[in-house]
Amino acid sequence: MTVPSAPTARPDDDRTLQILADDSVIASVAYRLAALRQADRAHPRVRHWGVPVFCAALGATSNLNPYNTGDIPAQLALVVAFAVPLLWRERRPMLVFALTTAVSVAALPLGVLTGSESARVVSLFNVGRYCTPRQLALAVGVTTAQLVAWAAVFTGRQLEYATRPEVVTMLAMTAMAAFAALGLLSRLANAYINTLKKERDQQARLATAQERARVSREMHDILGHTLSVIVGLADGAAALAETKPERGAQTLRIISASGRDALAELRRLLAVVGDDNERVDEAPLAPQPGLSDLGSLLERVRAAGPTVTLDTHGDLAHLPPGLQLSVYRIVQEALTNTVRYAASDTSVRVSLTAGPEALQVTVEDDGPPRTPRTRRGRSGGGRGLVGMRERVALYKGTVTAGPNSRGGWTVRAFLVPNPPFPGFASSHEQGEPPSSPEHRS
Questions:
Q1: pTM over 0.85
Q2: For 293-441, CATH number?
Q3: pLDDT by residue (tens digit) across 120-163?
Q4: Where are the alpha helices (DSSP H) in 87-164?
């Protein structure tokens, strides 16, 4: 017969003890129970074999009972019949309960007091622990009916034994201990429920904070890019207003279109997180930008001055929308930094490579800073790079940003589609540019 192996430690044990620590009594009981549980897991054979042996020992002591009218061989046979089924008490609790009940019924007409009634208590306990409420109710009903029947058919000597002062005292003490345990269990359950409610509220607040962070990240990307493009276009339009008015007018139209697009994105974003009672059906319901929108993004950047080229490699058409949005925002933020800090005649290369293990996004420019005072290290607090890191973290990736050998700036991100592919670490570690403490926005 195989002995069940020790259960693996559950990661939520420490968490359960921590959330019950507000009540000193409950915490004390919980820590002691946890210590017993850990000891039981470390030595599972002790409980597996110890309980049947203990019940058999109680039965063997009934040889000394002067009220026992049965012979010793029958008594020992019944003790074994009580104890052996307990070895399967956790795997087949209802079967073990049925066997111990049958043995107890057989012992009554033989006039044998085995002293192994504790085996029935153990079997009933495991029914409550492992079986359905309906099966537990059935087991309790059978036990109650059996006790009532026994009281009616007890012989004189058996009745005299059952009503001895020490037996009655022991039963009364057992009942009091059971009620005390039920009260403590009720307190433990209430404390656990209350802490779960607190944890639920904390999770709700955490979800709200995460949603606010997401909205903040989206608004930063939308407004930062659009305003940078608008400023660059406005500077160019002012210079062209007198010499080339037709190009100046075209630039103003691009500024207007960029502003309207940004406003539409903001309305859509705020409609998603707005109050349920507000009318959000007036907000545009277009999908979030993806790889198909990179063309219009690059056109707006080209209108601001830089020359931008896009290279794609691999199958990019079947990427999930969430991954496409992250790629779009990373490219958008990198181009925003180029428009904001680099000279207007900068050349930018955007490269998207979908490999078997990861998706690589590279945005590299060769432009020097616009003026000596506008150094690449200047930033508005680094929020853009933080936002990119948060996006790639959703896909177990990495992002690096730093100066390149051509005097420009390189942003390189690796994103792993879910589920991650094996071998990603070795591939992206080889392709990462050296990190730099300097960074843009």
A1: no
A2: 3.30.565.10
A3: 888 888 998 889 989 999 999 998 888 888 777 666 656 666 66
A4: 93-107, 117-130, 133-153, 156-162
